[in-house]
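Sequence in, structure out. Go.
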Amino acid sequence: MEIVERQDGQIPEHDHSGLGILAKTFEGEPPKSDSFTFRRAFQDLIDGWKADELWIMLGWQDIKQRYRRSTLGPLWITIATGVMAVALGLLYSLLFNEDLSYFLPHVTLGLIMWGFIAGCIQDGAQVFIANEGLIKQLPAPLSVHVYRLVWRQLLFLGHNMIIYLILLVVFRPSLGWDVLLFIPGLLLLMLNGVWVSMFFGIIATRFRDVAPLVDSLVQLAFYMTPIVWTTRTLYSNEAMSQRAKLAELNPLYHYLEIVRSPLMGLDVAPYHWAVVGGCTVIGFILMLLVMRKARGRVSYWV
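Output:
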C-alpha cells in the first residue's frame, strides 16, 4: 500500500487515493449553483418546449384515461357544454330580451373560452401536486407538466368548437377575413395559460390552501365576466350605462373579447389587445420571478 506524505496540510498533486481526490474536491470555495437564476428559468421553458413529444403524448393519454371504456369518449365534453350553452342562452335571451341569433353564439363561445381559461387556472394550481410521481421519478423540466396541461385544455377546446360549427350552420352569420383574428387571440390565451399554470402551480405547491382559494375566486369571476350576460345590454340602459364600464376593469373580459368577437363577426377594439398584451408581459415577469426563486424546490414540496 502506497503511503503519501503530506506537508503543512497540503495535498500533493500525485495523491490519487480516494481520500485525496475527495479532499481536493472540497478544497477552496464550493462551486456556485445557478439553479436560482433567470437563465435556468428560461432554460427550463426552452427545454420543456423541446420535449414536445413527451407532453403531447401525455396530454393525449390524459384524454384517453379520462374517457376510458366510454362509448362517446371526449364527445361528452361537447355534449355537456352544448346543453349548458343552449339552456343558458335560451333562458337569458328571454330574460334580457336579446336576439337569440346574437346571444346564443355569445354565450356558447363565452363558455367554450371560459372552459379553457378556468381549466388553466384551476388545474394549473394542482399541476405539480397531481404530477408528484413523474416529478420525483422523471428527470424532466417543470415546464413539461405545464405544456401538457395547456395542450390538454386546448384539446378540450377543440372538441367544444364543434358546437360553434353547428351554430354557424344554424344562424349563418356574415363572417369576413376578420375572423382570422381568432388565431392570434387563441395564441395569446395559450401563452397566458403557460404563465398562469406555472405561477399558481408553484405557489399552490408550497401553500396548499391556495388551490381551494383559486377555485372559489374562479367561480366568482365567472359571474363577474360577460359570459351569460353582455355589456351591450348594460350600455343600452341609460341608468346602467355608467356601471357597464366597471365590467371593463375585469381583465378576463378582454381575454374573451379578442377570441369571441372575431368568431361572431364583430370588430375588436384595439384596447382589448393592449390590455391582454400588457397582462401577458406582466404575467411572464411574475412567472419568471417565481421560477427563479422556487423552481428548484418544487420537487421537495410535492
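Check: The two ends are 48 Å apart (CA to CA). Residues 143-171 form the longest helix (29 residues).
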